[in-house]
Amino acid sequence: MRRAGAGASEERTLTARGYFLLDLTGRYRWRNVELSLQLLNLTDTDWREAQFADNSCVRGEEQSSNPNAPCFSKPGRNAVDPPAGIHFTPGNPFNVRAGVKVFF
């Protein structure tokens, strides 16, 4: 069972979405052979594996190292202040993993 959720920005203006995952894992070993079976995300929950707050530059803008003006448009180099948003990596859906190990 895995669970997470917290503030995505230091100011707590953006909140990272929480999630609850249910996994089932089993292993059986007989002499020098081990069989394993994992059922991951049994409830097929839509979840976000990595979540963080960030500003995005759109097409036609370049990233800047200045935190006060994170993006510049290419032609005139005017500072653009895009709104902060939550960027995330989607988590895996229901998944089955099986394995065999041979010890020698």
Protein model, in words:
With 104 residues, this protein is an all-beta fold. It has one domain. Helix content is 0%, strand content 50%. It contains no helices and ten strands. The strands form four sheets. The chain has a three-stranded antiparallel β-sheet, with no helix packed on it. Strands 6-7-8 form a three-stranded antiparallel β-sheet, with no helix packed on it. Strands 1-2 form a two-stranded antiparallel sheet. A hairpin with a 5-residue loop joins strand 7 and strand 8. The chain is elongated and about 70 Å long. The model has no long low-confidence stretch (mean pLDDT 80).
Please specify the SSE layout and strand pairing.
Blueprint: E1 2-4, E2 19-21, E3 24-30, E4 33-40, E5 48-55, E6 61-63, E7 71-73, E8 79-80, E9 84-90, E10 95-102
Antiparallel strand pairs: 1-2, 3-4, 4-10, 5-9, 6-7, 7-8
Termini gap: 33 Å
Q: Compute the number of structural domains.
A: 1
In DSSP terms (H or I, runs of 4 or more residues), the helix count works out at 0
Biggest beta-sheet profile: 3 strands, antiparallel
Order of helices and strands: EEEEEEEEEE
What is the typical, i.e. mean, pLDDT?
A: 80
Oligomer: single chain
Structural class comes to mainly beta
Percent of residues in β-strands = over 45%
What is the strand arrangement across the widest sheet? 3-4-10
Described by the principal axes of the CA atoms, the overall outline is elongated
The strand count comes to 10
Task: Give the helix proportion (percent range).
Answer: under 10%
Stretches where pLDDT falls below 50 for ≥5 residues? Answer: none
Q: Gyration radius, to the nearest Å?
A: 22 Å
